[in-house]
Design goal:
about 325 residues; alpha/beta; Peroxisomal Thiolase, Chain A, domain 1; seven-stranded mixed beta sheet; six-stranded mixed beta sheet; 9 helices
């Protein structure tokens, strides 16, 4: 059995992360991770006629250049795993149409990057493939149009809101050995603490992150101190504070080794309130900052937790509460 404890799985041999790529918009390129991103756009339309088509091009670029980073071509990718925030995950679907790769579409909202890494790891560890591409991303303008208000309205943003990251990231997982390996995964449960404010994503997702992290620590008999970095997806400033308090109440005290992609994405003077969000948030930070630091030996044992709010425009309009999900993977640097 590769399952340990309640919800955690261990990968004894595979997979390795052999390739990665991150591409972001102009605003993200002025944030705290500017020096780590592989590519920063000058224009968030990316030369396209709509923001949705620009998002699609971000996905295509991320996949193709991630393959190029490890010297693979399309014929060597056995499965493409992808998902996004658009209805019917059209950014991923249409990218798969263009790439003509075997494709599995996933939806975990902003947790989709972690979900794709888990599914890809299981496929490789099970002996069903040699190379898997995992991609996800988001676009501020397309997400605003779908989930909130048309940009032309200039609607005032509440102080609990976050800024959807424009960007895409792709990881290439393989049975070919490299310096980074995925060793564990914890599949999260849907958790709902009755948060109904669609502008408070961090508060809605923090309970799910709490459950996944505390379950992982119990399943593996480890503590936060055993890891160089515990990185959550996009809880933002408020959500991160909520998570810290909840973890401490459970007996897990975090120190300087805890960070949140959303909280760190932008600088304080960029006026994004609680920070970044969206599928592209953790996807771009993982495939830039985390991967580069691990390859340099600066990070050796990293927990990555993707968090997602499993809402829709219809559920919000009907007054439903917001279910949260959090998926976890552990990356270790190997010689």
């Amino acid at each position: 059995m590769k399952k340990i404890g309640k919800q955690t799985f261990i990968f004894e041999k595979y997979p390795y992360l052999i390739g990665s790529y991150s591409i972001v918009g102009p605003k993200e390129g002025k944030g705290n991770f500017a020096q780590y991103f592989d590519e920063v756009l000058k224009d968030d339309t990316y030369g396209q006629k709509s923001y949705e088509k620009a998002e699609r091009k971000l996905f295509l670029t991320a996949v193709e250049r991630a393959m190029g980073s490890c010297g693979l071509d399309r014929d060597q990718i056995d499965v493409l795993l992808g998902g996004d925030l658009m209805n019917q995950i059209i950014s991923s679907n249409f990218t798969a149409r263009q790439l003509q790769l075997p494709f599995l579409g996933l939806f975990g909202a902003c947790s989709t990057m972690a979900e794709s890494l888990i599914v890809g790891s299981m496929i490789l560890d099970g002996g069903f493939a040699n190379n898997v591409a995992c991609v996800t991303g988001s676009h501020f303008s397309s997400a605003e149009k779908q989930f909130r208000y048309p940009l032309e309205l200039g609607t005032q943003r509440p102080p609990t809101s976050q800024w959807t990251v424009t960007g895409a990231g792709c990881s290439i997982l393989s049975t070919t050995k490299s310096s980074i390996r995925i060793t564990h995964a914890t599949i999260g449960k849907v958790v709902d603490w009755d948060v109904t404010d669609a502008n408070n994503m961090g508060g809605a997702m923090a309970p799910a992150c709490l459950e996944t992290l505390s379950t992982f620590f119990q399943d593996t008999n480890t503590t936060p101190d055993d890891y160089d970095l515990i990185l959550t997806g996009d809880l933002g400033k408020l959500g991160s504070e909520v998570l810290r308090d909840l973890l401490e109440y459970r007996g897990y005290k975090t120190s300087t080794n805890y960070a949140d992609c959303g909280q760190m994405m932008f600088t304080n003077d960029q006026k994004v309130f609680q920070g970044g969000s969206g599928c592209g948030c953790i996807a771009t930070v993982l495939n830039s900052y985390v991967v580069q630091r691990m390859r340099l030996g600066k990070l050796k044992n990293v927990i990555v937790v993707g968090t997602g709010a499993l809402m829709s425009t219809v559920s919000s309009q009907q007054g439903d509460s917001i279910p949260g999900i959090a998926h976890l993977v552990v990356l270790k640097a190997e010689k």
